Amino acid sequence: MLWFLMITLPLILVVAHVVLLATNLYSSVKPALIIPAIIVVYCGYSIISVSDRDALPAIILAAYYLVLTVFTLRRSYLWYSRRHA
């Protein structure tokens, strides 16, 4: 159950972020960076919680979180550039 939450919660956050960007509910750039920041914290948590027996899953989760963060930051940048063009 914990692994399910650790994998799906950041994905749900990304979907929420994209929906908020698409509906223009962010008032400025600072709130648009909150969800990527949460995903980076998840990445840090998965790396900190590494022990010898579960090092590989933690590394995989960290890579997953970093990919999600890049995706959300890219979407945020595209949203910002369209809004201020």
UniProtKB/TrEMBL annotation:
<feature type="transmembrane region" description="Helical">
    <location>
        <begin position="6"/>
        <end position="26"/>
    </location>
</feature>
<feature type="transmembrane region" description="Helical">
    <location>
        <begin position="33"/>
        <end position="50"/>
    </location>
</feature>
<keyword id="KW-0472">Membrane</keyword>
<keyword id="KW-1133">Transmembrane helix</keyword>
<feature type="transmembrane region" description="Helical">
    <location>
        <begin position="56"/>
        <end position="73"/>
    </location>
</feature>
<protein>
    <submittedName>
        <fullName>Uncharacterized protein</fullName>
    </submittedName>
</protein>
<keyword id="KW-0812">Transmembrane</keyword>
